Amino acid sequence: MDYETLSKINPKLIYASITGYGQTGPYSNRAGYDVMVEAEMGLMHITGSRDGPPVKVGVAVTDLTTGLYTSNAIMAALLARARTGRGQHIDACLSDCQVATLSNLASSALISGEKDSGRWGTAHPSIVPYRSYKTLDGDILFGGGNDRLFGVLSDRLGHPEWKEDPRFVTNSVRVKHRADIDGMIEDITKQKTTQEWLEIFEGSGMPYAAVNDIQGTLNHTHGKVFGTQSSEGVTDNSTVQARGMVQEIEHPACGPIKLVNTPIKYSHANPSIRTPPPTLGQHTDEVLGGILGYGENEIHELKKDGVVS
């Protein structure tokens, strides 16, 4: 079932292979999992607290980015086939995609030829203040990306005098006095709840964000959707709030369940969750009988022998 064999039968075939380390090179036969590639290809080294050990990202991000790169490559190959009439083999792997997503850090290392600065947690190596700070009941992140925004932050925190402090008047000196200003900010933020700070900074033009857990994220007003969806599609009376990233649908066996919706919005289409997640073996008869042409007796024997569910 390799590309060379199948492409002789159908030259228009687009064949995508996803592996740990690719079809060529010394690691091409090596097994690859997301966490191994995060370690080997630099991501784990730059993830974690400043003085802590290297850590993996909380989700299998290299798996996910590789899938996204591959889907984009397939789309490009489809466009190429429309022009040339020929398909092609797409060689995608976790290691290549992880190197690509090192992004500006890879560029800096290539241009400077110097060792990177390691892990920074939620902080930034060259911008201060730019990190999360403890609150009375959680954490909040501020992005003081320039001197004007630092002034906004100082005002909203109730310390406008910081703008005139020689240690903090420009970003370059704030970087030198990082520990001082970070400590002073956190002494203030600990005095109120995260929600109180969100309300204080609302409308300020300052980039800020609560550090939410998963439930907090899925119940966030920016991404939440209310209403139900039948097994055939979204009901007309669904009420959508903001971005609609959580959709409630009706499952024939489980009742109402909530699922994460597709993240892309189109101007002339409305992609959404079309059907509930299937139960085990739900489409066995449909696939074997309707698509592959198996008879009822053959399907019965396969189920009897435990070949299919």
Report on the structure:
The chain is an alpha+beta fold and 309 residues long. It folds into 4 domains: 110 residues, Rossmann fold, CATH 3.40.50; 81 residues, 2-Layer Sandwich (formyl-coa transferase, domain 3), CATH 3.30.1540.10; 65 residues, no CATH class; 32 residues, no CATH class. The protein has 12 helices and 11 strands. A 3-stranded antiparallel beta sheet has the order 3-4-5, covered by helices on one side. A hairpin with a 2-residue loop joins strand 7 and strand 8. Helix 3 packs across helix 4. The longest helix is centred in the N-terminal third of the chain and has 24 residues. It is extended. The two termini are 25 Å apart. Belongs to the CoA-transferase III family. Keywords: Transferase.
